[in-house]
Design a protein that fits this description.
By secondary structure, the protein is an all-alpha fold. Helix content is 77%, strand content 0%.
């Protein structure tokens, strides 16, 4: 298999796994919330769901590496606006995802957060960042 095609496949599968993992977690949280469990602090990061969080983390580590190699093999300059915007959004989204995981782990351990609604703000911000990145990469002007 050609290197460019293999990298494109790895990049696409990583993106798909990231979004599917996020959607699975969202559906599970909404189901528990509708069932009457208003305190979702412990269930989101318990051991069975740790695999999903680890899979998301692995995808978040693979995406910039495979993306850089794809850009390098395609011969695109890194100074293009859509690449710079995507990289900046990725950095912000990745850091906010990490902050979200740390925050949920603290809730799992029983430490009450000062502003519990801020967790939802982080979730929405991460989702907006990664959807915007997908839009930028899908509608690239090259």
């Amino acid at each position: 298999m050609e290197t460019f095609t293999a990298l494109k496949l790895v990049h696409g599968v990583s993106t798909l796994l990231l979004f599917v993992s996020a959607i699975v977690l969202l559906v599970w949280v909404v189901r528990r919330w509708r069932a009457g469990d208003k305190d979702l602090s412990g269930g989101v990061v318990r051991r069975p769901w740790g695999f999903v969080w680890a899979l998301m983390g692995l995808c978040l580590l693979v995406l910039p590496v495979s993306g850089w190699f794809l850009v390098h093999l395609a011969g695109w300059p890194l100074s293009q606006l859509w690449l710079l915007a995507g990289s900046s959004l990725y950095l912000l989204g990745g850091l906010s995802w990490l902050w979200l995981v740390v925050r949920l782990n603290r809730l799992r351990l029983g430490r009450v957060a000062k502003h519990p609604r801020f967790t939802w703000v982080l979730v929405v911000f991460c989702a907006i960042c990664f959807i915007a990145i997908a839009g930028l990469m899908g509608a690239k002007p090259v």
